[in-house]
Amino acid sequence: MADQQLYAVFTLIDITLALPPTSVKCETSFSAMKLLKNKRRGRLRAGRLNDVMMVKLTSPSINEFDPDLAIKHWMTSTPSGQPRRIKREAPGSQGDCIVVSEEDEKDVASNKVTTP
Q1: Where in this protein does the record put region Disordered (predicted)?
Q2: pLDDT of 109
Q3: pLDDT value at 52 more than 80
Q4: Which domain holds residue 38?
Q5: SS3 of 113, please?
Q6: How far is it, in rounded angstroms, from Cα 114 to Cα 116?
């Protein structure tokens, strides 16, 4: 009997801790949805709206976003699971590519890039 009561108390504590103390998240979500679902996007279906809201609410701000991780993920994965085939120009060729020297790479890495 005491075990059941203790279990009930723990269940009540878990439920209480799961409730948000304020409605800020809810209000933020509704504000984001109001911005997303305007007259031009009034025909968004529930599934698509859910996806767009998830991206809007969980992604970092543009100032905090690091594109290197996204680029690395895109470069190393495809829907089929195969690595991407990237066409690279041979050294010394005159293709449509930018040639970066090792010194330039070091300058970029150390943030010593100068503009002409």
Answers
A1: 76-116
A2: 53
A3: yes
A4: 1-64
A5: coil
A6: 7
**Residue 83 in domain:** no
Q: ∠ CA 31-32-37 to the nearest 5 degrees?
A: 100
Query: Does the residue 74 lie in any domain?
Result: no
pLDDT over 60 at 20, yes or no: yes
Does the residue 105 lie in any domain?
A: no
The residues near 75 (Cβ < 8 Å, ≥ 6 apart) are 84, 86
Number of domains in the chain: 1
Q: What pLDDT is attached to residue 30?
A: 86
Q: What is the DSSP letter of 13?
A: H
What is the tens place of the pLDDT at every residue in 96-110?
A: 544 445 555 555 455
Buried b (16+ CB within 10 A) or exposed e, 44-67: beeeeeeebbeeeeeeeeeeeeee
